[in-house]
Write a structure and sequence with these properties.
The complex is a heterodimer of chains A (498) and B (340). Chain A has 498 residues and is an alpha/beta fold. Chain A has 18 helices and 25 strands. By secondary structure, chain B is mainly alpha-helical. Chain B has a single domain (27-333), classed as ABC transporter involved in vitamin B12 uptake, BtuC, CATH 1.10.3470. Chain B has a two-stranded antiparallel sheet with strand order 1-2. In chain B, a hairpin with a 2-residue loop joins strand 1 and strand 2. In chain B, helix 3 (49-74) crosses helix 12 and helix 5 (108-135) runs antiparallel to helix 11 (228-254). Chain B is globular. Classes of the chains: A alpha/beta (498), B mainly alpha (340).
Chain lengths: 498, 340
């Protein structure tokens, strides 16, 4: 690939990037979230086309690639978003789109034995007859990998494949990668984990903010050098210094368990004047925890205490009245009405208040004035509050969400992945706002999958794993090694228990 | 060892899974058993041979239509037009048989097959419109089939001016529509064959897999190379064709083509039968053998209400309640499972 660019509304995801994969090599893609890795592999896999630049596959220029044609050509992606049909069995998913059939009638015996053979070859602990929806995430991951290897593979794309695998399953996957490499398959490997990169990589391409930083030989590259390439010194610049002045406990949770088991017996508290971080892998229950506090998930047992009072049966309207505000990670699905103007999106959750409405009739002038003040405070650009939110970039959309929280007297801010999908500039502004809120005595709960973010901003950091709180770190304990260690310690403990 | 690996971190799921299993498979036979037991106590007339034949016949009609409805529901669609397709098929077939009867007097070997083909052609036509609009124009199934419902009903009324159409060959009615084969109504055999065929397609063929895949996770199906649009169109065409087939049988039984045949009740009941049988309104789930049981249950329910002289307007209300309850149960069952 040469000079590949791709822009999405509001973001330039890839800017003039070169990338090359040789047969029989493991090429690691490395970079922060939002650096353009996903965009690049999606173009390679045919999910969408590049805006400009050249893409050659086995030497031939590629045009009009679809995901299906890419697979036929031997490009097999394993994304984090699985391409599995949940209500079908593992076996049916493996053969989806390439069933063994005679005249439309399935040859079930042949498929059964081939599925069994493939699973055995891979050494995965998978039952072909089970429904995918009933499998754990790790087993779904194995199914996805097995599916990718069903056809004749020339290019294999693995996007953080070990994120939900245990050590043992991961090491089996590494053996597999080595075997495929030996047989001449080119492998694109996306990962954040240094240990894996050191073990597998032949070459490493580092991306940052959609631009190619460098492609280096893995041999003789140190960890610190990679991190430097990835972050480009801006790390200390990115995160403001937050002056934590912990005061009284504004929010406390005891023994919280959700009906669906996503959160199990969690205790934690958040104090005024500090940022309380919650880290953990995707799906560990950290978002569900704060969603439950706000009243978006069904609670089975446990206690929530807000500013000293027991808060029973939370629901969003009552939460807002108590000064709690939740900022969803999926701002399009849960936060904003895209076709409506900024003004309406900002004031929606405060319309019950007297300064916005009298006897259910909205005070238009008052609304406009208050919204404009808040929007100015946040430096929303452009400052026209009648624009439809759908026209805004990711960063500005997040600001509209934040503005909504500021229309009321909110003292507890629950942030769910606040910087997902927004550019660096907007990130800095979001962090700056958090700093200001904390200085004014608010309690902030920050849930994030981005380690640097939670580590740098939090005064105290909790770590969640499989629905449980597994660690509480303060001060100097908050560093990458400790946090990662608490992920893995629990992994092993879980294995032994099982 | 694999047991523990799957069960990890989900205590109490075992009990729920059992409850789930009962909800999915056990509820329907239980309902059937209860309703039959109820009739045994309160209304002996239910077990008269003629009445049983009536129940079986209406079950057959409904099961055929509901099987089609199920196919559309599986691809995450929706077909409101089945009742209207029945009306259109009935009138077109009766009209064309009457016309052919004038052209070829007494030649049943020509009149009947051609007439039936004209009827089925209506199903093909409406099904194609539904499928093409949903798959290519991406119009919501609700709107498309609401529109074709209106079109087909209007055409049927235009053709007949609301007057029943006579003039079909007697043999079609007496030797087929009202006949018994080996002591059972002909319709029952045809319905059984159709159910078996649909079952075979669902479980043993590529087409069946693809229908489940398209409804289960459209994106995954496309990425895996499943021709999604073609399969969506096929589901709508099969649904309308099955409704047409039911219309042929109903018309043969009745002896005249009627624009009032099918109508809203068939649309409502076909969806109800499918949803009671656990077909997911979100697509990807549904088995024809259970749908047939759902049709049996609804037919017994309707028959029982007739025998017990429940007001016909009240019956419509009760059917609506059953439909809402079934949809609510489906949603509850889905939620109970939570996300893994």
């Amino acid at each position: 690939m040469r000079g590949v660019s791709k822009a999405f509304p509001g973001v330039k995801a890839l800017d003039n990037v070169d990338f090359e994969l040789r047969p029989g090599e493991v090429h690691v893609l490395f970079g922060e979230n939002g650096a353009g890795k996903s965009t690049l592999i999606n173009i390679i896999a045919g999910t969408f086309a590049q805006d400009s630049g050249e893409y050659r596959l086995m030497g031939a220029p590629v045009r009009g690639l679809t995901p299906h044609r890419a697979r036929v050509e031997g490009v097999s992606p394993v994304f984090q978003e699985f391409s599995l049909v949940p209500e079908m069995t593992v076996e049916a998913n493996l053969f989806l789109g390439r069933e063994i059939a005679r005249g439309g009638v399935l040859d079930r015996g042949a498929m059964k034995s081939r599925a069994a053979k493939i699973i055995a070859d891979l050494g995965f602990d998978l039952e072909p007859g089970r429904k995918v929806a009933d499998l754990s995430r790790a087993h779904q991951q194995m199914t996805e990998i097995a599916k990718a290897l069903m056809g004749e593979v020339k290019v294999l794309i693995l996007d953080e494949p070990t994120a939900s695998l245990t050590e043992r399953e991961a090491s089996r996957l590494f053996e597999l990668v080595a075997e495929l490499k030996a047989s001449g398959v080119g492998i694109i490997y996306v990962s954040h984990r240094m240990a894996e990169i050191r073990q597998l990589a032949d070459r490493i391409t580092v991306l940052r903010d959609g631009k190619l930083v460098k492609t280096v030989e893995a041999e003789g590259v140190g960890e610190s050098e990679l991190v430097e390439l990835m972050t480009g010194r801006k790390i200390d610049l990115l995160f403001p210094h937050v002056d934590h002045k912990p005061a009284e406990r504004l929010l406390e949770v005891q023994g919280l368990t959700l009906e669906d088991g996503g959160v199990l017996g969690v205790d934690f508290y958040a104090r005024a004047g500090e940022i309380t971080g919650i880290a953990g892998l995707v799906g560990c229950g950290k978002s569900e925890l704060i969603r439950a506090i706000y009243g978006l998930e069904a609670i089975e047992s446990g206690e929530i205490i807000v500013a000293g009072d027991a808060y029973e049966e939370p629901d969003p309207a009552a939460s807002l009245d108590r000064g709690l505000c939740y900022f969803p990670s999926d701002r399009v699905a849960e936060g904003l009405a895209l076709d409506r103007p900024i003004r309406e999106n900002v004031s929606i959750s405060a319309l019950a208040l007297d300064r916005f409405a009298k006897l259910a009739v909205i005070r238009r002038l008052g609304e406009r004035k208050i919204v404009r003040e808040i929007v100015d405070q946040l430096a929303l650009r452009p400052p026209n509050i009648e624009r439809a939110v759908g026209n805004l970039s990711g960063g500005n959309r997040q600001k509209v969400m934040l503005a909504r929280g500021l229309t009321r007297e909110t003292r507890i801010f629950l942030f769910d992945e606040p910087t997902v999908g927004i550019d660096v500039g907007a990130k800095v502004e979001v962090y700056e706002l958090m700093r200001r809120l904390v200085a004014e005595g608010a309690a902030i709960v920050l849930v994030s999958s981005e380690l640097p973010e939670v580590m740098n901003l939090s005064n105290r950091l909790y770590v969640m794993h499989r629905g449980r709180m597994v660690a509480e770190l303060t001060g100097d304990e908050i560093e990458e090694q400790t946090v990662l260690a608490s992920f893995f310690r629990e992994d092993e403990a879980g294995e032994n228990a099982a | 060892m694999s047991e523990s690996a799957y069960g990890a971190g989900r205590p109490g799921l075992g009990g729920e899974a059992v409850a789930q299993q009962i909800m999915r498979v056990g509820l329907l036979p239980l309902l059937l058993f209860l309703s039959v037991a109820f009739m045994a106590v309160f209304e002996q007339k239910f077990f008269g041979l003629n009445n049983l034949f009536n129940v079986l016949r209406s079950t057959s009609f409904l099961a055929i239509v509901a099987a089609g409805q199920m196919l559309v529901l599986i691809v995450a669609g929706f077909d409101l037009s089945v009742g209207a397709v029945i009306a259109l098929t009935s009138t077109v077939m009766a009209k064309s048989m009457a016309a052919l009867g004038v052209m070829f007097p007494e030649q049943n070997a020509i009149i009947i097959p051609l007439g039936v083909l004209c009827g089925l052609g209506c199903g093909l036509f409406i099904g194609l419109i539904n499928g093409l609009c949903v798959a290519y124009l991406r119009v919501s199934p609700f709107m498309v089939t609401l529109g074709t419902l209106s079109i087909a009903t209007g055409l049927a009324l235009l053709l007949t001016q609301g007057i029943p159409v006579y003039g079909m060959p007697d043999g079609f009615v007496t030797d087929f529509g009202r006949a018994l084969w080996f002591g059972l109504p002909t319709t029952v055999y045809i319905a059984l064959v159709i159910i078996l065929l649909v079952w075979f397609v669902q479980t043993r063929t590529r087409l069946g897999r693809y229908l489940y895949a398209v409804g289960g996770n459209l994106q995954a199906a496309i990425v895996s190379g499943v021709p999604a649009r073609r399969n969506v169109i096929l589901a709508y065409v099969l649904c309308s064709m099955l409704a047409s087939t039911a219309a042929v049988l109903m018309t043969a039984r009745l002896g005249s083509g009627q624009a009032s045949m099918g109508g809203n009740s068939m649309m409502l009941q076909s969806i109800a039968a499918a949803v009671i049988a656990g077909v997911s309104l979100r697509g990807g789930v549904g088995r024809v053998e259970l749908v047939a049981l759902g049709a049996l249950f609804l037919s017994i329910l309707t028959n029982a209400m007739n025998l017990l002289r429940v007001d016909s307007k009240m019956q419509v209300v009760i059917l609506g309640i059953v439909l809402v309850a079934a949809a609510a149960l489906e949603e509850l069952a889905r939620r109970r499972r939570g996300h893994v």
